[in-house]
UniProtKB/TrEMBL annotation:
Superkingdom classification of source: Bacteria
Protein name (database record): GAF domain-containing protein
Domain GAF residues, every copy: 35-184
Family: Belongs to the CdaR family.
A Pfam cross-reference name: GAF_2
Amino acid sequence: MGESDQSRSLFRADFPQLRGEVLAELVRLFSSGKDPVGLAEAAVELVADATGAKSVFVYFWDPDTERLVLRTVTRIDLALTLGSIQIRLGEGITGWSALHRKPVLINESPMTDPRFMAVDGVDENDYSSVLVVPIFDDALLYGVFAMYSSDDRTFGQEELAISEEVGLLLGSGLKRAETVRELELQSATARFLSDLPPASSSSLPAAIRESAKRILTLLDADACIIDYTSWIAPTSEPIAVAERTAEAVEEPRVWLTHSKQVARETEQRYEHAGYDHISSSLGFGIARGALTCYSRRKFTQEDITRLGILATQVGVLVGNMGSVPSGAAQLVALLASDREEQIQESLKFLGWRGGVFAPILVQVKRIGSDLETFGRLIQESAYLDLGPDTLITQSGTLVVLLVQNEKLIRSHEITSRVTDWISDLEARVGLSADVGIGQATNETISVRTSLYQARTALAWASFSSTRRAPQVVDYDSIRLVFELPRLINDLAPEIQGLHGELTPVALHDAQFGTHLLETLEAYALHGGSAASTADALFIHRNTLRQRLGRIHALSGREFDQSSHWPEMLLAVRLLKLDLLQGSFRTTTPRNLEVESPESQY
């Protein structure tokens, strides 16, 4: 027996012990907290040591491209870029092993195997033995590792057995590692704001620098750009860029620029290089800028979801900073406080220098332009239309204006001027907003009272507006009726019941063009008086009786002196609004047998 055969025999005799050592070390690796690539590389190195392999190739399965992608090459000096080799399922010996989820053992002349496929950059003449093992579990393929040797018959059944066992265990380990990694990412994403160091909340530049750097890591991206847009700011806000470069792989390079052109050139550099990219608006509701990330790999759906969550949190963070630190907090104190002195302190922080003003609150519902254009125009037009001393501040979608134009205040033309101003913005930038105007402070003799009036007027505007049309309400116009919504709230249950009963009447009008709702509206308006209703509608009393009979047949509702006419009137008018807005279609409901009317009532 030759020397090599003796060593081979000894190796086989010691193999159970070696197998135990390999598996024990593998268990230690699984608890080491390595990332999936690091875990696979370490595990395969372990097998290579035990089997005498010369070089090891590790491929990971990419479900997006449906390719096996080279992620690790060890024990050999090759001019290969990781990711440069991509193999389809069934392609070559490696692809065949992945497709069939079976190991392949070839102990001489692998190039003569019919499954063999040449790979650019790899000289297969150096290898005489190959052992290819898939990494998978019951549900998923994770990848393949291939071990090569320059000698014939390097790998035997024992090497095959332990490699196959490690492949299965590695599949289970990778699944756990990915699960742990995903849970860690979900936790880090949810805690993103709370995990930021206190120093990063001190200013807008510090906040976006730290945010860009952390998001780059959480998404495993190559570059992330935070382009925050403030509506109302005297200067352009900084743009943060975090990127991995050849000189900064471990610790990303993070830098700021105020130039939109420089930021765009950076984006184009990655786009032209073929990087995948995803983007999300900062904040929620109306966008406050964008968060964009680039990567050599294709982003997953989980990455896209995670980016949206992070962008919302960054929007909240920077939206409370802007050009004036803690401006949003001061605005909250301004509108929520019951103490006159605290309100005045907040006003001074926001730039008020004393004097009479009229408060205007603008709740933005929709804009048809970019934020920069909107922010510039709202300032320019406010100074032009309401006076150059107008103080403007903003938080989220709420804009607060303090009009200090004494001439305009004395003329009592603020409401008409504000209405014209909002209409102009609607035409120029597609603005839709609810607006509340309070009395000037020289009338209320209280800053707190004037602001309360503006809030009340804004609430009324929001209560009575539509999604698209701007609505301007001044407190004087609702001063005597501003408690009406509370009264309506008390009447709502009965009105809702009447609305349901009278819906068949509305459907009848919609299908046949009759005027039953109009008749019932007049009848309720005149308190159930047939004579007054017939006179108001210019119809004969018999025609009125016919219509009321038809309404009764459709709704089942009796009309007598005990009827609650105010509630009836409101229910009818709500139904007329439904008809006007197209809420009812001209199809016949299943529970309503409609006869063609004998006349157009």
